[in-house]
Structure formats: C-alpha cells, structure tokens
Write a structure and sequence with these properties.
The chain is mainly α. The protein has one domain (10-48, 55-139). It has helices spanning 15-22, 33-43, 59-68, 74-81, 85-107, 109-112, 124-129, and strands spanning 9-11, 30-31, 71-73, 116-117. A two-stranded antiparallel sheet has the order 1-3. Strands 2-4 form a two-stranded antiparallel sheet. The radius of gyration is 17 Å and the shape is globular.
Length: 140
C-alpha cells in the first residue's frame, strides 16, 4: 500500500457539452463569454501565496483541460499541457473550482444562451468602454 494522499481525480461527465459550447459551435463568430468568465476568475486567484512575480494561471489552459479530459488528474494535465507536477496540481485544483460553476451555468438556459461576438468585445473592460453596463451584457 502506498502512503500519502490519495490521487486527485476529477470526473468530467459533461465534457462533450462543454466542448460544444466552447469550440464546436455552428456560429464561429460567437463565443460563450460566461465560460471564459468562470475560467478567468479562477485563474486570477492567488495561487502562490507571498511569492513575488506571481503569474496567473492560463485561462486557455484551464479550458483546454476541461474540454479535452474525461478525468482530470495531475498526470493527464502534465501530459496535455507539458507541465511539471507542481504546476499541473494547480491546474487540477483550478478545474475542480471551475467545474461546479460551469455545470450550474449549463443547467441554466438563460446563461447558456448568452453568446457574444468574439470580434467586437475583447474584454469586459472593452465592453464597458463601448457603453455596455453589467446588466446589459446579454444584449451585446
């Protein structure tokens, strides 16, 4: 018997549905900003404590893990992203924080149907600069 913590394995049963939302869309010019918002928020958490030069996790890499892996483990993330074990563990933790929120959003038809033009809105700040308020984001 091995000692230490058991291996963390996060099941991702709705991988295809998330993949369809992110990459498999019919209208290629529209994208689910709500999915990006969830990954962006988790990526910007303080992952390194008091260390200097903190670089946030990559939103794209978090979404790649969620859209391609059936079971998210340290080893599968290491292989997919080409990372070392320590960094891969952070991505597994980030995915574990994202998945419940993504599943909740997928169950809400109003949120799931919100799509945004990928060309016109670069970021939330860009949307605000164009005059869109937070409450009006679904009209973008």
């Amino acid at each position: 018997m091995g000692r230490g913590r058991p291996k963390t394995e996060i099941q991702n049963p709705r991988k295809e549905e998330i993949f369809w939302e992110w990459q498999g869309r019919e209208e290629k010019t529209m994208w689910p900003l709500w999915l990006d918002d969830i990954a962006y928020g988790v990526a910007r958490l303080d992952w390194y404590g008091n260390k200097h030069n903190q670089i946030p996790l990559s939103t794209v890499n978090i979404i790649r893990c969620i859209t391609t892996l059936d079971a998210i483990t340290t080893e599968s993330v290491m292989e997919l992203l080409g990372l070392k074990k320590t960094q891969a563990k952070l991505y597994v933790k980030a995915c574990s924080l994202c998945l419940p929120q993504i599943h909740r959003s997928l169950d809400n038809k109003q949120i799931k149907n919100m799509k945004y033009p990928s060309v016109t809105i670069v970021s939330y700040q860009h949307g605000l600069s164009l005059g869109y308020q937070y409450q009006e984001r679904s009209k973008i």
